[in-house]
Prior knowledge:
Elements: H1 6-13, H2 23-31, E1 41-42, E2 54-58, E3 65-73, E4 77-78, H3 82-90, E5 101-105, E6 109-114, H4 115-126, E7 141-142, H5 143-150, E8 154-156, H6 162-178
Parallel strand pairs: 3-5
Antiparallel strand pairs: 1-2, 2-3, 4-7, 5-6, 6-8
Amino acid sequence: xxxxxxxxxxxxxxxxxxxxxxxxxxxxxxxxxxxxxxxxxxxxxxxxxxxxxxxxxxxxxxxxxxxxxxxxxxxxxxxxxxxxxxxxxxxxxxxxxxxxxxxxxxxxxxxxxxxxxxxxxxxxxxxxxxxxxxxxxxxxxxxxxxxxxxxxxxxxxxxxxxxxxxxxxxxxxxxxxxxxxx
Length: 182
């Protein structure tokens, strides 16, 4: 498959005057080319007991290990669904798996952040509460709030070098490789 740069993705698909394509499109068109292995699950949305939008899993030798990545997309920021909010940020008894990384695309930046660091910031800033209604979302976290803390984990879309983005994905790919080392 042909690779596309981040600036090309923005130019062709992230026209902020129109509707943006969404997470599944971003995963399929841009992110999948960044990984050395094919993910075991894409966008399972909590199905099959998996968290995150991109999941790599080793089920060999009765050892279940996984690395999961949550993907978010939004013009100035993004929010989390009811289940994501309740399971990942509110529940004190976190028996369910948590993502390992957050990859977020906003109008101006790509963020690649370790989940624990992002989660700590989100809880500190947004103080999420359990969502009881059938539908609902968390408070929105904005690009500026992420930049204030995660400038080293961000890539400005119009000026970022693909080599720098690739270097960040190299770290994730090394972690994925470790899943198969026993």
